[in-house]
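Reading group handout, session on sequence-to-structure problems. Before we discuss, look at one worked example. The prompt was deliberately terse, the way you'd type it at a terminal:

> structure Transportin-3

The input record follows.
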Amino acid sequence: MMMEVAPTTDLVYQGICTLFHNTNPREKEKASKWLEEFQKSIYSWTIADELLQQKRDLHSCYFAAQTMRNKIQNSFNELPPSSHESLRDSLITHIGQITIDTDNIIVTQLCLALADLSLLMASWKQPILDLLDMLSPQPQSMWPLLEILTLIPEEMDSRYLRLGANRREEVHLQLEAAAPKVMEYLCMCMHVSETNQEKILNATLRCYSTWVAIHAIRLQQSAQNPLTQQVFKLLSMESTSRKLHDTATECMCALLSTSLDPQFKLQIFNCICMLEPAYHTSVGTEDIDKTMNYCRIFTVLCEAFFFEMLQSDDMPHYSIKGLDLVLICVGHFDYEVAEITFNLWYSLSEELFQRNNDTLTAHFKPHIERLLGALYRLAQMESDQEGLLDENDSFSDFRRKVSDLIKDVAFIVGSGACFKQMFLLLQSPGTTWESTESALFIMQNVAKNIIPDENEIIPKVVEAILNLTDKTHIAVRYTSIMLLGELCDWIENHPETLQAVLDFLLCSLQQKNGLAAAAAIALTSICSSCRQKMTCHIFGLVNIAGSLDSFEINNDLAIGLLKGISLILSRLPRNQLDTAMREIIRFQLEPLAELVKSGPVAVVCKGERTDPAYWVDRACAVIRHTNPDVSTDEMHPTLQILNEAWPLISQIMDKYQTDVRVMERTCRLIRYSVRMVRKQASLLVEPLINQMVCLYTLHHHSCFLYLGSVFVDEFAKVDECINGLLAMLKAFIEPTFKMLQVENGLKNNPDTVDDFFRLCSRFIDCCPLPFLQSALVTPIFQCALLACTLDHREANSSVMKFFCNLLKWGRSNNYRLSECKPLVAEIAQQNGEALVMNLVHASVFCLHSYMLPDVAEVLTELKAVVTSEQMESYLKTALDALPRKNSGGYVTATQLQLDEFCNTVMRATAPKSVTVALKTFTRLFR
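And the output record:
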């Protein structure tokens, strides 16, 4: 409820005191809500100004400054243009009263408020020069002025301000014009700071960095620029404080990210190379923060020269030496330093892979060999590590990143060569357990890419693994088992090793020391790769499936094993398949039947044996991955199991109907079952639909809508099923619309929007004419119009897909089911204007730019249904409804830009052109 009467300044101050000083939690919460409402009200402008003038205490000044900043960012439209100047003058007055003792957070909020005001206020033509004139003569204003000059370029792209491309261009021109004066002021501040304080120098360099980052300062002579020289000086000196070092690093990275001429690039490259001794000094003094800063600078240097490094495949570019600096950092003992460089190596490997040029790739081979050597050292565990690594600690996370990186870069040196390099390390005399484990870890990550007929090294590795004893460190055994799993393609090509490998893995699977998890992963991989050769082991595998809960593995790994076993089931003769599959499914359904019989629902403990989803997921894995070749006239083996299991599945849905997670898992089991047996499941459709509709009306689980779309996909081409499916849709509509039409209904239920419109799209795809002839299409289309503005990626995509699928049937060149054409044409005539209006509004004010290609598809489809005159009229109406000026008084879109957008859309022959036009156009309002 909005505040209707202006509160007094004293009342607001009392609320602030309660919020910050009262010990009663209820009173604090009450004060917080009241102050929140106050901040939204029109009265907060004046009272915040008064509180800043009165300076009663820190909290009231902070609250007032934060209110002012918040109002300017989010509610600037509340102020009439006539009051903009007085607001500006008031803020400048408050900032002019800042002293060196003023609290940082108050300074930041006030400076942010003035910076945002300067960007929003079109009538303020030279804010930078005006601020320099007014505040630079006052020594105490140096700090806040530097803060404002830093924030203005930073805030240009603020998503709160939505300045628009025209205003940003205007501001950028203002900044470029003011840049010489700003540089002059920054140099003066730098000289003052030499005799005064570090705080000013830090603020000066932060400001320089932001102006460089947005290309407002010309950098032709930047290396000779006093500020750039100061940055290098600070980075070269051991005595530089941590904070200044961080700022100098940011500044250097900003310089490197700008477009520089070749001469300056060479100068800056040479200057950065001279920082190598400073890096070594930081390592020697164990100043890890500075070490990480240098690593970042060297990495950004290589990123700045990225395409120069790759430009020639005969003579390497001088900048390739930058990789040597990066590799020095990768050699640091702290893995967090090396991690800074990972994105560079990813980019390099991706580019070399795309170019597929062996000569060029060879330039980088020595660097990648050094990288792999460093990763081998960094991935080593501590020598006093007794058990396995904790999967959730930061070192395990680092090793996962190393794993991904090795898989990406190994091709540059060759996976076989990398494998051999690590094998040779294993042969070295005096190898410790931790270095052995690390070598095996590297081998594990390249094993999949080794040629399966390799017969020199892998046989020795496999033999060594199979002969490991209980005395071997458990981490070495764990990684060895994981390596066996990655060698699954080699094992498939060497079937004589299979029996020994399976015996070894089964033994490991029964261990209670953590090895069972690795054995489960390895066995799953081998089952997937050696399907045909594993059929003779099916009875042992069925026994494993029945004993899963005796192994020390989590349910995800158990499901993985069931998946692997099911892939082998698919290769069995029919009689063996039926028996084995029925047995494995029985292992999952019997505990479910016990849960159903066990009386009222207790609290379901996720992931426990008393959780029905635990067993449903396992059954689902078997159904989903047992996919034998079955002729169309042959009964699918899953059908009989599904028919027998249906009463139990129905009971689960009834008993656990309030638990959305269990319902989602059960629907997924039904979905894969129906997908597997297809039309053979038609007898189950009616009872399933009846139960789904009943439960959806009560609980609105969107998974039922998704399952409905699967039924439409499978059965809508069967004429006798269509009326039942349309009845299902009709039954779904009332509870769905009821939920979506309340306030924020669409926003709060994106999954429902997603699944509902996916269901409607399936109808249009599978039985368009009955759907278009039904009375349901109009209310569904109206609901889709409302959902255009929903900024949820999947939900919005489903809405747009619905529009596209429907409009496709109205194309003038559509000769399939011509009866659909007039029905779609009528829908387009009735709703075309509203559709374009909503799409344009949503694109400009609601949707992310990555969602605009879907909007472009809809506009393109609509163009193919209505006449050019109608489409142009719809577009012009939608564009006329957009605001021509922002609350700050500047133009958002000129008539020329509006016409250009309209003409581009009308001329476009493909969605891609419309997407480009939409992205360019929406930037005018963002």
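Points for discussion. First: The mean pLDDT is 92. Second: The radius of gyration is 34 Å.
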